[in-house]
Write a structure and sequence with these properties.
The structure is a homodimer. By secondary structure, the first copy, chain A, is of the alpha+beta class. Chain A contains 9 helices and 8 strands. In chain A, a hairpin with a 6-residue loop joins strand 2 and strand 3. The interface between A and B is medium-sized, with 23 and 23 residues.
């Protein structure tokens, strides 16, 4: 896969995942490869500085990698963010992987969010969602188009039917508000059943559900083009900008300094804000 | 409590609850009495026809009562709907009690929804929420004012910490969208522990949580007055009207005919639509 005929693709700068448990790594590699195969040719090369593409906290106990690529002119993709964080914590290590695909206002189709927060080899919190770009209460047709008719809620149910899987609520009310009514927001606790139970769930059910959600997003959202009116477009951009601002504020500005120190945190947040154009 | 000095209050026409298990009845009587004490004096007498105030299906296996009273000129209440439905079902009897308090556009404060669906003496599905009147993603200040600062999520957590209580999702994606991120949407299953466990939960935890949510709504929402701009007010009314329309469509028009036959169902839905002005 090449970004253009002239240069090798900037793809997968975060793809190594040197610290992830193997099933978590395999899932992420599969997901990023799928995105890459479908959207990579329409993405511009990364302009993220090398000290954000890869970074670490003082002493090296915390490491991370983050890449953001913008969509080319012919793409409905605004940007794709891929990242991993790895931190030593008292209980072992914390591994967070994120895939965030944001669309332009050339469509009103939902964005894609996938985040896996593995606190130990036997516990995982995860969010997977098609993020709505409109108030669903005011736009039942939009709810039908992207959530009812795509059957994405059945996919969510499949995962929630696994006995070790429990609903999870973000502590942030804003993050809860941003999620759709079909969002996968769960915790998986394998406790005494141990690592092999978690590996099995990740390799079978989570793998299948994550890929199905990505397939729905790639087929129904990423390729969608819609002529929006002036006001509708302005409303959409205002809402998108708020989501960008608030998620950086809640998710990153609040947590990165603690894990990586203020200097690294600032550098990473600045690179994101630049790519987000906020 | 009187609607005016001239006539006895039309209050509590549904208050008998002849078919409810005692703890369910006690809770509803307490909740409706609290609403009555605080808002009754500012409500107009009911104009719901007597064959909707009390109705039954063919053969009398299904019975129901529904009252709606509008707020007077000096009240920020648009209307208050109180109802109960009782139906014989294969597993015994189904009892649904509803309290729905809708505010006018003289404020943008949330509406109140409380619904208890008791499918058997040992199982209950319940919804309790302050229904947002704005897109929370676009209005983080609104989220802070009515949901963050009121600590209503702590109240929800209290109930969800009870071991027999599990999160519950409405099968309707629209209903899920209408609920706030702090909505209580749970099922309580006491199974083998039997009726006494359910009675205990209803008399202790549910009682306390329901009353606290009602207190927050009465103190922070029902008394709220806010001067809204022309556009803001129009947006609010458009959203409120959609919520009224869709909830009647999803909740009542879909279920009442099955339980009460088409004639009774039509009569009840018409009375609601008239009071809702939709």
């Amino acid at each position: 896969v090449r970004a253009s005929m002239d240069q090798p693709a900037a793809a997968s700068q975060v793809m190594g995942f040197p610290h992830l448990p193997p099933p978590h790594r395999d899932l992420m590699v599969d997901l990023l490869s799928t995105i890459e195969a479908r959207l990579g040719p329409h993405l511009l090369p990364s302009v993220v500085p090398s000290d954000v593409l890869s970074f670490q906290g003082q002493g090296g106990a915390s490491r991370g990698a983050l890449d953001i690529r913008s969509g080319g002119q012919d793409s409905s993709v605004d940007f794709i963010l891929e990242s991993w964080l790895h931190c030593k914590v008292p209980s072992g290590s914390l591994n967070i992987t994120t895939l965030f695909a944001f669309l332009k206002a050339s469509t009103d189709a939902p964005h894609l969010l996938m985040e896996f927060i593995q606190g130990s080899p036997t516990s995982l919190i995860l969010f997977m969602d098609l993020l709505p770009r409109k108030d669903l209460v005011l736009h039942p047709d939009y709810l039908d188009e992207f959530y009812q008719n795509t059957n994405v809620d059945k996919v969510r149910q499949e995962l929630e039917n696994v006995p070790q899987v429990l609903p999870y609520r973000s502590s942030s009310l804003y993050i809860r508000s941003v999620l759709s009514p079909t969002a996968v927001a769960v915790q998986i606790n394998c406790g005494a059943e141990g690592e092999s139970a978690m590996e099995e769930i990740m390799r079978v059910q989570l793998d299948s559900v994550a890929k199905e959600i990505m397939r729905i997003w790639l087929d129904k959202c990423a390729r969608s083009i819609k002529q929006l009116g002036e006001t509708e477009r302005a409303d959409l951009l205002r809402r998108d900008t708020l989501i960008k601002n608030k998620t950086v504020e809640i998710d990153l500005a609040a947590n990165l300094p603690r894990l990586f120190g203020p200097d690294v945190a600032n550098r990473v947040v600045e690179a994101i804000q630049k790519a987000y154009r906020i």
